[in-house]
Amino acid sequence: MKVITDIKQIEELLTRSVVDVLPSKDLFKKELLSGRQLRIYIGADATGSALHIGHATNYIILEKLRKLGHKVIVLIGDFTARIGDPTDKTAARVQLTREEVLKNTKTWIKQLEPILGFNDTENPVEIVYNNDWLSKMNFEDVINLASHFTVQRMLERDMFEKRLKEEKPIYLHEFFYPLMQGYDSVHLDVDVEICGNDQTFNALAGRTLMQKYKHKEKFVFITTLLVNPVTGEKMMSKSQGTGVFLDASTNDMFGKIMSQPDENIPQLFTDCTYVSLSEVQKIKDDMKKGMVNPRNIKARLASEIVKIYHGEVAARSAEEAFEKTFAKGGVPEDIQEIQLGAHESLAEALIKSGIVESKTEWRRLVLDGAVKNDDSKITDPNFTPTETVVLKVGKRRFVKIIK
Q1: Which of 204, 223, 242 is the last residue of a domain?
Q2: What is the pLDDT of residues 149-196, one digit of tens each?
Q3: Is there a contact between 329 and 390 (Cβ–Cβ < 8 Å)?
């Protein structure tokens, strides 16, 4: 496939959703303009069954590079997921079994199909699994790999420094994670790795190994993370109920985007849609001047994102359902139903169904007046319905409890 060197497309790639490119943007730009086909990959560990729209930012960039004619690779970390990346963790991750990891990978490709050209006949996306090579390494291979790094370098990672200060344990196997991710680059013989800002350390380990094993440079394309500009917290959090996951239904995806704080709108437009940067800037300026209603802009944002993963018709339907349900005080047509067992508490049933994370969260919601039966607030955390009821949990979650 002929490599496209359109300067306008390349300039946008180097400015949109990107924190930095190492060793430099100028050198990477020169490579993109050279006409040489680059091998580019993204790796992700299958530690969960669903990806969220923050993950999708990287794959959107990968697809843009594929359309320019470059060879792109989606790596599923079915081996590294079993070890666990210590990134942003103040304690060691729980190690998964291979069976658990494989179960998590089943829906990934389906979730990415709307944004990646898996079925392109001329230049298809390649899918690889790092268990295929990492599981075959012997102890001598591992020793040779480890010989290229010092303990001091590993301790430079923020989470390790924090654990040392707090006198929390650092397990030896955690040091091997960046080595394994780094060796992925060597095995695949790539020119570029795309990663989030939280993966920079691991990606640079790969750059070191490429220089040692292949005597070549590897570019590290570092993308932005979805972070609330006011609170500094991550926008995508499953535990806080703010995650917008790719396997969500149209109505759920639309509603979760509408529940995002207004200050998140500009970055979500930039990183999660195909709306032009010039138009995003106008939206940002208009919001700053108070010339537009943030709710209307957010509805457009939700439509743009839902359209990517479910299609334009589904996006329109989701917006109509949202208006009916929330603007006019209605109840969703596709409400989730839960069968309450004879000896099961309401909290247990809601936790099992994923409506709430824990009994603590359920208790907090009830005491905060955030659980309603019709227009009546539930005030007792031990409330048990005596008949079938529809509950509104929080701002946007509805559930029918079948007694």
Answers
A1: 223
A2: 999 988 888 778 888 888 888 888 888 989 999 999 999 999 999 999
A3: no
Phi, psi (degrees; rounded to nearest 5) at 139: -65, -35
d(CA 107, CA 113) in angstroms, rounded, equals 10
Angle of helix 53-67 relative to helix 265-272, nearest 10 degrees, comes to: 40
- Tokens 């959703």 appear where? 17
Give the tokens for residue 69: 């004619």
* 34, 134: one domain: yes
If DSSP states are collapsed to H, E and C, what string results for 198-245?
Answer: HHHHHHHHHHHHHHHHCCCCCEEEEECCCECCCCCCECCCCCCCCCCE
Q: Give residue 241's region: left, alpha or beta (phi > 0; psi -120 to 50).
A: left
232 vs 185: CA distance, rounded Å: 31
Q: Amino acid identity of 6?
A: D
Residue 76: CATH number of its domain: 3.40.50.620
* pLDDT of 90: 45
Which residues fall within 8 angstroms of residue 5, CB to CB, at 6 or more apart? Answer: 32, 33, 34, 35, 68
Both structure tokens of 379: 């005030």
Buried b (16+ CB within 10 A) or exposed e, 96-120: beeeebbebbeebeebbeebbbeee
- Same domain? 310 vs 196: no
Predicted structure pTM score: 0.80
Residues 6 or more apart in contact with residue 361 via CB below 8 angstroms: none
Residues composing the chain? 403
